[in-house]
From TrEMBL:
One of its GO terms (biological process) is negative regulation of gene expression. SMART domains: IL6. Cytokine with a wide variety of biological functions in immunity, tissue regeneration, and metabolism. Binds to IL6R, then the complex associates to the signaling subunit IL6ST/gp130 to trigger the intracellular IL6-signaling pathway. The interaction with the membrane-bound IL6R and IL6ST stimulates 'classic signaling', whereas the binding of IL6 and soluble IL6R to IL6ST stimulates 'trans-signaling'. Alternatively, 'cluster signaling' occurs when membrane-bound IL6:IL6R complexes on transmitter cells activate IL6ST receptors on neighboring receiver cells. Coiled coil: none annotated. Pfam families: IL6. Belongs to the IL-6 superfamily. This is Interleukin-6. InterPro entries: 4_helix_cytokine-like_core, IL-6-like, IL-6/GCSF/MGF. Keywords: Acute phase, Signal.
Amino acid sequence: MNSSTRYLSLLSALVVLVKGNPVPSALAELMTSGWTSGEELGTDGETGAPPKWEKMIKMLVHEVTTLRNQQFVEEFQKPVEEISSFSQHQVPSTPPHLSKTLCSTSNKEACLQEISRGLQVYQLLLQHVKAEYPQSTLLPSVTHQTTVLIGLVKDQMKVAEVVEDLSASERKRVLGEVSTGTEWERKTSVHAILRELRNFLVDTKRALRRMGKRGKDFQ
């Protein structure tokens, strides 16, 4: 897809949103991640079947976004259009966005370690989501797919550099940061976890695709 086609596509999306399309915050999603350019779920004009990790991340992004929106509406009794008003709520233990500098260089192993480590933290934080939002029918799939993605990332790393699993003390610290507090604080922490997990997945997809373009294929 050339630049003019991309511009027209984005312009069309703007027109649809102005006319009141029911898809909430569609354009806002384009700017939720440090690497987001509006193409995080596209194929950049590539042909052929996408690799397994790409299909998995696309599914995960969709499911996490849906889960985040459902939890927001049900727990806070607000329309999804007001979701940006909760952007100030943060969870200290959520991994930061992937380092754009690190994952844009040729240091594949360092980038994969950062991805693996971050996904392991989110895998643990999803336990808190389950405890606070047990009625979700999407969460089991999100948790399973996250575990599978961690395995795919580790399979691409050198054996000596595979990131170790979180220690018992680390797990206790991470869960301790979100399991205490008022009911409101625990609910907002669930929202923040899902929001930041989505951002991390978008960053991960872009990082892995950059590796592929540099000849460091990630299947």
